[in-house]
Design brief:
Keywords: Cell membrane, Membrane, Transmembrane, Transmembrane helix, Transport. Helices cover about 80% and strands about 0% of the residues. With about 250 residues, the protein is mainly alpha-helical.
Amino acid sequence: MTAILVGIFFAIFGGAALQRISGMGLGLIAAPALSVLLGPVSGVLMVNVLATINAVANTYSMRERVDWKRFAPIAAALVLGAVPGAFLIRAISTDLLLIIVGVLLLIALSTVTMGKRYIPNIEGTVPSVIAGTVGGFMNTLAGVAGPSITVYAHAARWPKEIYAATLQPIFLVGGAVSFAIKEATGAANLAAVTPQTWVVGIIAMVLGIIVGTRVAPRVPVNLAYRIALSLAIFGGFTALVRGLVGMLSA
């Protein structure tokens, strides 16, 4: 149990710090790690809750750079993807869910890292709603809304100065919606995560925010972003392999 708590601490700490620097990180790093350490249902639920709290702090500190008009249609669409995601969690096995989490992460991250240059310029409400719907589905199932929103933001040519800030309230709504729908549908249970684990997670997140805030001026955003993506890819592979091993050994 101690080793698991240590792993949880560093995953959340690193994710929270990198998110404060680059705009993304907590879900990318913690979701695959906690899916493996706690199981995909409890792990992603914990990420949803912590991501919401983390996004509250980041939204407040970055509020002057948030583009609320760009935020609104994406946030409203998150629930459209969250509902089917919650019902899917109830319908499939843990091992299959781990595989889906891993595959979704790897596809999304591959698109973000290698496919952005091929994405055409898009405008309008419909693409933002689609991005929000996909983000809500992935956030509920895998704890990561960021990749789909990042692809859309790149295609819509969001200015860099508002990108990281506008992601924060989107993550806030996404985490809260995913958590609420899971609880309402019985897809996950907050009590399944032990109090000790919550304490470790919250401490790690707070320390990550503090450290991230202090080092942000000295760390290039692109470097922090690449680190987060690299760790997330590793986590996605880990979740995928663990799910496959579980299914093959069943």
